[in-house]
Design brief:
460 residues, alpha/beta, Rossmann fold, Dihydrodipicolinate Reductase, domain 2, eleven-stranded mixed beta sheet, six-stranded parallel beta sheet, elongated, binds NADP nicotinamide-adenine-dinucleotide phosphate
Length: 460
């Protein structure tokens, strides 16, 4: 793969990779260049100030922050980064011959891509927390790392402080991952938790998540499910050995989840979570990879993962079920994962093992993501109907004709002729069949507004 670089230092790159690799082997001090001094970049700087001595003694090397690139030198920062380290030109950091290791912590998919490719081309290892970029351009970046004899590390890209990338790549290297379910977006989990426990308003809680540094810019990436889809795609790729294009991930966010849905789900013994689901469907390497609000039984451990916490439930064919839990977003949790990657990068530099574990190793077989219409689920359906004789029978007839079984119905007591909620719990059906039945139901004159359909997961 050819790496295109632009900018004033582009010409210098060609000679530098070999020179850089030769120079470094003699040193035990690794100089770090951080691009981005916001929530995560500032968190990494502060964590290194706090635990640098411990970190260095564990690694048997010294890591030193040499420069930090930001956009605005005048901005007030919630971190201890000294002004003297700051520059507004990332090239001054990446092309500094005394910088050995780069942390890309700006986000976005344009400049971040350019920065990472420039550093890799120089033979400099890169640590990133940028799941949007990996999701869209992972294969290109991995190929560049391979080509220039260096590596790309991305533990912080999924689930903040939880070392789930290491767990899948190393801890479960001997397992087939038959299923993986993840609460992988801290912002959405924070919003859904506060809506459920405090009856809080969606917009107000989102504003709090932004103030706490959990949300992406813009936060639509979180609430429309795209951030969770980027992360779920990365986990699915590692579990199944083929890099998953984000366009193949079926995504639904939490914008349409109402207080009524949370209330009725609760009455039925469930909690609504935005869940990333990765499920092996059959022996032909077809995999479900999706993100959607899901009713989780209150008896399941994922139902009690609250606030900004994330959790990933992994079902391996040898290990059985395993659970990973921790803070999914925020300054310190994310810094912890960046430090984990910095540790790996330093050790790889120190011992000359930069390709010990390449960023991504395709394996197993040519997998494929199954279309959502073919995926089988159970469903919670909430309708708003006119309370009059025969309505329930008409709706039940449509479900029956579609071969969809009803497992329970709730209709709170209403007044004849008034609008009332009508809740159905449905047995297994393909998403295509369920969507079709709901389309017919929505056309009935007694059904007001669009039906709400939320999938139910029983983790069987
Ligand atoms: P942030 O608080 O908005 O910080 C972004 C930083 O990048 C800022 O310091 C900004 O400079 C700097 N920056 C932006 N464009 C730049 C450019 N062209 N050149 C130099 N500096 C530039 O974002 P964040 O929350 O730290 O997120 C960073 C990355 O980590 C993203 O990929 C995000 O998805 C990922 N991540 C975030 C979290 C989290 O909890 N926040 C968790 C996991 C992963 P100024 O400060 O001057 O504006
Ligand atoms: N916006 C992301 C979240 C940050 O809320 O989970 C962590 O990746």
């Amino acid at each position: 793969m050819d790496v295109m670089l632009t900018g004033p230092f582009a010409g210098e790159i060609e000679l530098s990779a070999a020179a850089f690799n030769g120079k470094l082997s003699a040193r035990m001090q690794v100089n770090l260049g951080i691009i981005g001094g916001g929530t995560v970049g500032g968190g990494v700087y502060d964590a290194l100030q706090r635990n640098g001595a411990l970190f260095n003694s564990r690694l048997g090397a010294t890591i030193q922050v040499r420069r930090v690139a930001v956009r605005d030198l005048k901005k007030k920062r919630g971190s201890t980064i000294p002004k003297a380290l700051l520059t507004t030109d990332w090239r001054e950091v990446v092309f500094d011959p005394e910088v050995h290791l780069i942390a890309e912590l700006i986000g976005g998919t344009t400049t971040a891509r350019e920065i990472i490719l420039a550093a890799l081309k120089l033979g400099k290892p890169v640590v990133t927390a940028n799941k949007a970029l990996l999701s869209a351009h992972g294969e290109e970046l991995f190929a560049a790392a391979q080509k220039y004899g260096t590596n790309l590390y991305y533990e912080a890209s999924v689930c903040g402080g939880i070392p789930i990338i290491k767990a899948l790549r190393e801890g479960f290297v001997g397992n087939r991952i038959n299923a993986l379910y993840g609460i992988v977006n801290g912002t959405c989990n924070y919003i859904l938790t506060r809506m459920k426990l405090e009856g809080a308003d969606f917009g107000a809680v989102l504003a709090d998540a932004q103030k706490l540094g959990y949300a992406e810019t813009p936060p639509d990436l979180d609430i429309d499910g795209h951030d969770a889809a980027h992360k779920t795609g990365i986990l699915a790729s590692l579990a199944h050995g083929f890099w998953i294009n984000p366009k193949q991930v079926h995504v639904e966010g939490i914008r349409h989840i109402s207080a009524l849905d949370i209330k009725f789900a609760g009455e039925l013994g469930y909690t609504i979570k935005l869940l990333g689901t990765v499920k092996k469907l059959d022996d032909s390497c077809r995999v479900q990879v999706s993100v959607y609000p899901t009713l989780v039984p209150n008896s399941h451990v994922l139902a009690s993962v609250n606030g900004v916490f994330n959790a990933v439930f992994v079902r391996g064919d040898i290990v059985g079920d395993a659970l990973f839990y921790g803070r999914g977003a925020g300054k310190d949790a994310t810094a912890s994962s960046v430090l984990s990657d910095l540790g790996d990068a330093v050790l790889d530099l120190k011992t000359g093992t930069k390709n010990r574990l390449p960023a991504f190793v395709p394996h197993e077989c040519d997998g494929a993501v199954a279309p959502i219409s073919e995926v089988v689920s159970q469903y919670f359906v909430r309708l708003n109907v006119t309370d009059k004789p025969g309505v329930l029978a008409m709706i039940a007839t449509i479900f029956g004709a579609s071969n969809i079984g009803i497992s329970s119905v709730i209709q709170p007591e209403g007044h004849a002729g008034a609008s009332v909620p009508l809740i159905f719990m449905l047995h297994n059906a393909t998403n295509g069949t369920a969507a079709n039945a709901l389309k017919q139901i929505a056309k009935l004159p007694a059904v007001k507004g669009q039906p709400v359909m939320i999938r139910v997961e029983n983790f069987e």
